[in-house]
UniProtKB/TrEMBL annotation:
<feature type="transmembrane region" description="Helical">
    <location>
        <begin position="328"/>
        <end position="347"/>
    </location>
</feature>
<keyword id="KW-0812">Transmembrane</keyword>
<keyword id="KW-1133">Transmembrane helix</keyword>
<dbReference type="InterPro" id="IPR018584">
    <property type="entry name" value="GT87"/>
</dbReference>
<dbReference type="GO" id="GO:0005886">
    <property type="term" value="C:plasma membrane"/>
</dbReference>
<feature type="transmembrane region" description="Helical">
    <location>
        <begin position="164"/>
        <end position="186"/>
    </location>
</feature>
<feature type="transmembrane region" description="Helical">
    <location>
        <begin position="394"/>
        <end position="412"/>
    </location>
</feature>
<feature type="transmembrane region" description="Helical">
    <location>
        <begin position="42"/>
        <end position="62"/>
    </location>
</feature>
<feature type="region of interest" description="Disordered">
    <location>
        <begin position="462"/>
        <end position="483"/>
    </location>
</feature>
<feature type="transmembrane region" description="Helical">
    <location>
        <begin position="359"/>
        <end position="382"/>
    </location>
</feature>
<keyword id="KW-0472">Membrane</keyword>
<feature type="transmembrane region" description="Helical">
    <location>
        <begin position="266"/>
        <end position="287"/>
    </location>
</feature>
<keyword id="KW-0808">Transferase</keyword>
<feature type="compositionally biased region" description="Polar residues">
    <location>
        <begin position="469"/>
        <end position="483"/>
    </location>
</feature>
<dbReference type="GO" id="GO:0016758">
    <property type="term" value="F:hexosyltransferase activity"/>
</dbReference>
<protein>
    <submittedName>
        <fullName>DUF2029 domain-containing protein</fullName>
    </submittedName>
</protein>
<dbReference type="Pfam" id="PF09594">
    <property type="entry name" value="GT87"/>
</dbReference>
Length: 483
């Protein structure tokens, strides 16, 4: 019996040919690539994109420079210079400076960490990786010092900075891994991943928190799905859910695709492997400290309208809204939005791509979520660059995100009309609405691509082609650099 015929490996798509913005930019360096251009043997697309991502990651660290230089102690600097990060403060406030296992009882000395286990493990491991560079007092001294006084201990501020740098190295390495996966997921369009690597939102938000860990899991899941590996896809989404909750919602996108392809066994394999990955990462936390593990869920259920959310806008313009009311309505609206994505996916002329459906589900969640921290743009970024790989649309969306990024710090710095951490600033409200409009604009472009495939610049690429176009995925070779 002869082997099934494999789809041919497509030549890479040159952005200077396919994208108007890239074509215009290329005029500054000689214009679009010609038919007789000779590619460089070593500088392949993946290496060029990783090099750009490395530069952006280094600039992300430079962006935190003012806070590093002031040892994170100057409130005016951390907001006015927009260099704030959660990492140094949690190193002290959650017991990491004492290498306290976050899932053990500290007798009230430390609050439990308000994150899923994946982030907690990395933060705790980074505290141990800081030990060779520690400059603070011995652990015996720390054990007899109140946590609020840690910042005043000799050498402690320098150690806090070093712990931040340790975390930064980890996160920036994770960003490179995510970039590599996106290049692979893009198939014959490797240059689409450049929109992630060179993203201004990546530069300014990469080191605010540990969100890049979940971003890398999602990018890896996109890579695995592009290669027809549902088990690996589900496993990475399950691990991602143990890091941040949002990768869980991408299983809804898999459901739509598998229904279209009549391939529910693939969905089943993804769900089982995802559950396994989630359980394995959560098990140590549950076994060593179930109350501390539950704190993440309790914290989010009790949280009211918070920074960046539409619920905050509604609460500021009308009567305050209780956490219970927000919980009920946010999940109800999100469920209706997911139903809409399901219908959209089923009625579309051809099977939408995972990146398209994943973006739509995730943006619906962020619209109704109780908080929108500045780094949440990273959740959308890997999906956006594959769902709508047009520089114009991606940049317009990120302009809105960057405007919000700047305004949230001015709001917290009390630099706006009536700045308070609880809201009430008209300028800050406008910033929230501008960000939402920008997200809705990109959402509308993706919905149009799904309903009218002629607008979709990706088309039926081998990485995510409809079921009628391919029997199984193929791995594309690393292509020489030609833009």
């Amino acid at each position: 019996m002869s082997e099934p015929e494999q789809p041919p490996v497509q030549a890479p798509v040159h952005p200077s040919h396919a994208d108007p913005v890239a074509r215009a930019w290329s005029e500054r360096i000689g214009g679009p690539v010609g038919g007789h251009a000779r590619p460089h043997a070593w500088w392949t697309p993946v290496r060029v994109i990783l090099a750009v991502a490395t530069v952006v990651c280094c600039l992300a660290l430079v962006q935190k420079g003012p806070c590093i230089q002031t040892q994170w102690l100057n409130n005016d600097v951390r907001y006015s210079k927009m260099c704030y990060s959660d990492i140094p403060y949690l190193y002290v406030d959650r017991g990491l400076a004492e290498h306290h296992w976050p899932y053990s009882d500290s007798d009230g000395r430390y609050q439990a960490m308000e994150y899923p286990p994946g982030i907690v493990y990395v933060a705790w491991a980074a505290s141990w990786l800081t030990v060779p560079f520690a400059t603070g007092p011995p652990q015996s001294v720390r054990a007899h010092t109140e946590p609020d006084s840690f910042w005043g201990l000799p050498g402690m501020t320098q150690e806090i900075n070093r712990n931040f740098l340790v975390n930064a190295v980890i996160l920036l390495g994770v960003a490179l891994l995510a970039t590599f996966c996106l290049v692979g997921a893009a198939g014959p369009r490797p240059w689409d991943a450049m929109a992630f690597a060179a993203s201004p939102t990546l530069l300014v938000t990469a080191l605010i928190n540990w969100d890049l860990l979940a971003v890398a899991c999602v990018a890896g899941a996109l890579w695995a799905w592009a290669r027809g590996r549902p088990v690996v896809t589900g496993l990475l989404l399950g691990i991602g859910t143990a890091v941040k909750l949002y990768p869980l919602f991408l299983f809804g996108a898999l459901l739509v695709i598998c229904l279209r392809r009549r391939d529910l066994p693939a969905l089943g394999r993804a769900l089982v492997s995802g559950l396994l990955g989630w359980v394995v990462l959560n098990l140590p936390a549950v076994l060593t400290g179930a109350p501390q593990w539950r704190y993440f869920w309790h914290f989010n259920s009790e949280r009211g309208p918070d920074l960046g959310s539409l619920w905050l806008v509604i609460s500021d313009s009308a009567n305050p809204i209780s956490a219970h009311t927000v919980n009920v309505w946010s999940w109800l609206v999100f469920a209706l939005a997911c139903l809409g994505v399901l219908v959209l996916g089923l009625v579309a002329p051809r099977t939408p791509r995972l990146s398209q459906l994943g973006f739509l589900v995730l943006v619906a969640f962020l619209m109704v979520n109780k908080v929108y921290s500045p780094q949440y743009v990273l959740w959308l970024l890997p999906l956006a660059v594959l769902a709508r790989p047009r520089w114009r649309d991606l940049l317009l969306w990120q302009v809105g995100e960057l405007f919000y990024f700047g305004m949230v710090w001015l709001h917290l710095d009390n630099a706006l009309a009536s700045g308070t951490s609880g809201g009430g600033d008209p300028a800050y409200t406008i910033a929230i609405l501008v960000r939402v409009v920008a997200e809705l604009y990109l959402t509308s472009m993706i919905i149009r691509d799904v309903l009218v495939p002629e607008y979709d610049v990706v088309g039926g690429a081998p990485s995510e082609a409809p079921e009628s176009d391919q029997a199984q995925s193929t791995t594309t070779r690393s292509n020489p650099v030609v833009v």
